[in-house]
Amino acid sequence: MKKQEKEELQKAIEDILWMAARYAHGRHTFAPSMVRDSLEVFKRVFVDFKIKQDHTIEPPQENEIGGLSFRSDYLDDIFNNEIK
């Protein structure tokens, strides 16, 4: 793969991961863990990668966690480069 092609692919995946995180944040489905897993794989290949900041994604309020709502359903922590 040529350097330019690799850069274009990296940019495309970065955009997809950012939008996937926006979609999955706060959902009580498999989507948040899929984003986390994909981000982890991507960071193994592109070690210096940092996901694009999204200031619309905020930590959950205390009353939003409980029952079938888990902390891991919220993706605000991935923007601090903490993959859990």
Short description:
With 84 residues, this protein is mainly alpha-helical. It has one domain (3-80). 44% of the residues lie in helices and 0% in strands.
Task: Describe the protein in words.
The protein has 84 residues and is an all-alpha fold. The protein has one domain. The protein contains 2 helices and no strands. The model has no long low-confidence stretch (mean pLDDT 90).
**Mean pLDDT, rounded to whole units?**
90
Q: Note the main sheet.
A: none
How many distinct beta strands?
0
Low-confidence stretches: none
Overall shape? elongated
Number of helices: 2
Give the topology string: H per helix, E per strand: HH
Helical content stands at 40-55%
Taking the alpha carbons of the first and last residues, their distance comes to 31 Å
**In what range is the share of β-strand residues?**
under 5%
Cα-atom Rg, whole angstroms? 14 Å
The class by helix and strand makeup works out as mainly alpha
Give the helices and strands, then pairings:
Elements lengths: L2 H22 L6 H15 L39
Helix pairs in contact: 1-2
